[in-house]
């Protein structure tokens, strides 16, 4: 039996609202880290500067974010971030005492609002680790620049949908470079859907993250790799 027009409208409306239901079930903020190093040295101060905002790109000021670092064989380290001069920007200083892989997470309005890829910590005097490949660097940037706060990508474990689902998408390299340098050149779509059409909603415009040329190269390398 063919569904009535009213039912069809309601089904579509519920589908569009499903993103909101998923997004705000637990709540989160978007975190963009200014410069996340490839590695750190045990016992030395690691300074992290980051911006906090909500998906609508409203900057969040007046917070007291806590930055936590955990290691499988060492006691967790935490620091309360201080507000920087720039709006909604905060800086935290951590001293990671043991070599190994540390995972850094941010508590803002919500606990574990964002987590970063593992950070390798080496002992003082140890040679620097092998540099990341371009695509691996892009994968890491995709997380600590907050791209996964709005986009889904099959190689990123945690992702949300406030912008196009990048699963299986192909973009011309030069276009993507121009877009990442100035997202305002392309208007936001009226709606977005996950590739499997399981959920969707109205997206927000992409912010200008003021990416460096090297960061754009790495992100483009990651997003366009096959």
Outline the structure in words.
The protein has 226 residues and is α+β, with helices and mostly antiparallel strands. The chain folds into 2 domains: 30-122, Macroglobulin (MG2) domain (Immunoglobulin-like); 134-224, Cytochrome c-like domain (Cytochrome Bc1 Complex, Chain D, domain 2). Helices cover 23% and strands 25% of the residues. It contains 4 helices and 12 strands. It has helices spanning 5-24, 134-144, 173-181, 213-224; strands spanning 30-33, 39-41, 45-53, 66-71, 74-80, 82-83, 89-95, 100-107, 114-115, 119-122, 192-193, 200-201. Strands 2, 4, 5, 8, 9 and 10 form a 6-stranded mixed β-sheet that branches. The chain has a 4-stranded antiparallel β-sheet with strand order 1-3-7-6, with no helix packed on it. Helix 3 crosses helix 4 (213-224). The radius of gyration is 19 Å and the shape is globular.
Determine Rg (CA atoms, Å).
Answer: 19 Å
Order of helical and strand elements: HEEEEEEEEEEHHEEH
Q: How many strand elements?
A: 12
The number of helical runs is 4
CATH topology of the largest domain: Immunoglobulin-like
Distance between the termini: 43 Å
The overall pLDDT average reads 85
Low-confidence stretches: 1-26
Strand content: 15-25%
What is the CATH superfamily classification of the largest domain?
A: Macroglobulin (MG2) domain
Number of domains: 2
Tertiary shape:
globular
CATH class of the largest domain: Mainly Beta
Sheet with the most strands, sense and barrel status: 6 strands, mixed
The level of helicity is: 10-25%
> Which structural class should the secondary elements be placed in?
alpha+beta
Q: What is the CATH architecture term of the largest domain? A: Sandwich
């Amino acid at each position: 039996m063919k569904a009535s027009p009213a039912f069809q409208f309601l089904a579509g409306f519920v589908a569009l609202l499903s993103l909101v239901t998923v997004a705000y079930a637990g709540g989160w903020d978007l975190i963009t880290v200014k410069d996340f190093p490839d590695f750190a040295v045990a016992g030395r101060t690691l300074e992290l500067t980051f911006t906090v905002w909500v998906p609508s790109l409203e900057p969040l000021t007046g917070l007291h974010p806590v930055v936590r670092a955990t290691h499988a064989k060492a006691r967790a380290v935490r620091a309360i971030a201080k507000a920087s001069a720039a709006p909604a920007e905060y800086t935290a200083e951590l001293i990671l005492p043991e070599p190994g892989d540390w995972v850094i997470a941010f508590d803002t309005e919500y606990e574990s609002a964002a987590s970063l890829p593992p950070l390798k910590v080496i002992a003082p005097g140890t040679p620097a680790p092998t540099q990341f490949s371009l695509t691996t660097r892009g994968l890491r940037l995709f997380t600590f620049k907050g791209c996964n706060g709005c986009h889904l990508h099959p190689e990123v474990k945690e992702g949300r949908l406030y912008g196009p689902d990048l699963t299986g998408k192909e973009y011309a390299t030069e276009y993507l470079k121009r877009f990442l340098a100035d997202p305002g050149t392309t208007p936001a779509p009226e709606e977005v859907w996950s590739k499997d059409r399981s959920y969707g909603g109205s997206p927000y415009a992409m912010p200008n993250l003021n990416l460096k040329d090297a960061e754009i190269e790495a992100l483009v390398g990651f997003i366009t790799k096959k």
